[in-house]
Design brief:
38% of the residues are buried. The strands form two sheets. Strands 1, 4, 5, 8, 9, 10, 12 and 13 form an eight-stranded mixed beta sheet that branches. It contains eight helices and 13 strands. A hairpin with a 5-residue loop joins strand 2 and strand 3. It binds ligand MTE and molybdenum atom.
């Protein structure tokens, strides 16, 4: 199917045939769920369970992967504390079943998806992506997920949908870090619609062939590899289509330091430190940070004509 830009297809123009096809795919998904073809059962969908039927993706890097241990013990997930080892130590309290994701706002087909339905929505792919934290470290992570565009097309955004807002679970009972006020909860991120529709933008449900560990944002998180890591919001419960640019958590916390776009850019320093270099976790010497984290050939055209010093 063609990737359609948002707004091109108002809900009123969806043909009965398309609806039929969607419904058929949905039923097939339900059948697979019942038969346990992909994930076995909800009990199997715990961190560490193998994901099967994952296909390779052309959007993948041929670069040495960061070891599993580092990917899963050196994390930022302030809902579980601000230390790098806090998420792996504390995220056991997060309950990832049952789990729903609400699709809301400027869409022809809003709705609430059960996570196990979402997992059947599109074929799962492995995407090895370079990830760069605004703090100056980077990793190479083999994510498993599917393009966000697949979910967006299904939601049939209206012509008013110019941005997408992503919201993390808000539950201090399961997320002890939310009892502290380091950030405003829930964690909110946002993308412009064309960024959200870009084929590199995925919803990840696994890594290293396995169901996503809680500390990495189980059961479903955003991954946007050309932007600083904080754009890739974890443990999503809500995806909202809006007309106005969302006020993200980090912009609210420190607007001079964190802009809406947050594209990896070695030429625009953070007010308190340089962004020219980075430390790849596991390596000793620093590397040069690449424009758009090395994905410029794929994404630079999204920002043509924009002053990236201003829209940082
Ligand atoms: N909900 C939520 N999402 C979040 C964060 C967070 O604190 N809360 N931290 C962000 C930051 S700063 C980074 S670098 C990445 C880290 O992802 P990883 O731990 O899977 O490598 O998650 C991002 N997503
Ligand atoms: Mo980060």
């Amino acid at each position: 199917m063609l990737i359609r830009q948002s707004g091109d297809v108002p809900a009123s123009e969806i043909t009965p045939r398309e609806i039929y096809r969607e419904r058929r795919r949905f039923m097939q998904g339900m059948g697979a769920l019942a038969a346990g073809a992909l994930l076995g059962s909800a009990a199997d969908a715990q961190a560490g369970a193998r994901l099967t039927g994952v296909r390779a993706s052309p959007y993948t890097l041929n670069e040495e992967k960061t070891p599993y241990r580092d990917v899963t013990t050196y994390n930022n997930f302030y809902e579980f504390g601000t230390g790098k080892s806090d998420p792996s130590e504390n995220a056991g309290s997060l309950k990832t079943r049952p789990w729903t994701v609400a699709i809301e706002g400027e869409v022809g087909r809003p709705g609430t998806y059960d996570i196990d339905t979402l997992l059947k929505l599109a074929p799962l792919e492995e995407r090895v992506y370079r990830m760069r934290c605004v703090e100056g470290w980077s990793m190479v992570i083999p994510w498993i997920g599917f393009p966000l565009s697949q979910l967006i097309r299904r939601a049939a955004p209206t012509g008013n949908a110019r941005y997408v807002e992503f919201v993390t679970l808000d539950d201090p009972g399961q997320m002890p870090g939310q009892r502290s006020h380091v950030l405003d909860w829930p964690y909110v991120e946002g993308l412009r619609m064309d960024e959200a529709m870009h084929p590199l933008t995925i919803l990840a449900v696994g890594l290293y062939g396995e169901v996503l560990p809680n500390q990495n944002g189980a059961p479903i998180r955003l991954v946007v590899p050309w932007k600083y890591g904080f754009k890739s919001a974890k443990s999503l419960v809500r995806i909202r289509f809006v007309e106005k640019q969302p006020l993200t958590t980090w912009m609210r916390a420190a607007p001079r330091e964190y802009g809406f776009y947050s594209n990896v850019n070695p030429h625009v320093d953070h007010p308190r430190w340089s962004q020219a270099k980075e430390r790849r976790i596991g390596e000793f010497f620093k590397r040069d940070t690449l424009m758009f984290n090395g994905y410029g050939a794929q994404v630079a055209q999204l920002y043509r004509g924009m002053d990236l010093q201003r829209y940082f």
